[in-house]
Fold this protein.
Amino acid sequence: MNAADLVQEHVKLDAFIESENKKFADHLKPHKKRMEEIKNLLLGMLNEQKQNSASTDYGTYYVSDIMTPKIIDREKYIDFIFDNYEDNGAMLQLREPKKEELREYIDRHNNQLPPGVSVEYFKRLNIRRV
């Protein structure tokens, strides 16, 4: 076998795998849709009962509160971090602030966000098997 044969074989295998992955994803689509519907129904039940979790013989379902921070003004954010590095330097990273440190900051500052940062919150239902 030469290099051209190996490249040709790799290209064919790659195309085959891509095609099979698409077929499999299409096969799973209705099942994944139904799982989402089930989660929405369970979330509705928890909301109606004013609970965050419940158990069944088959597993536990519970709500996680998810925070997704986003830097909307990088210059303000970076200036703020460096002006207050001793207290807030742990939030610094190349992208959005570290979530745990941001939560601690928000808790220490009466739910106020650092300058240049916004957050979105959403709830996600999780199911854990027994």
About this structure: The beta strands are 53-55, 59-71, 117-129.
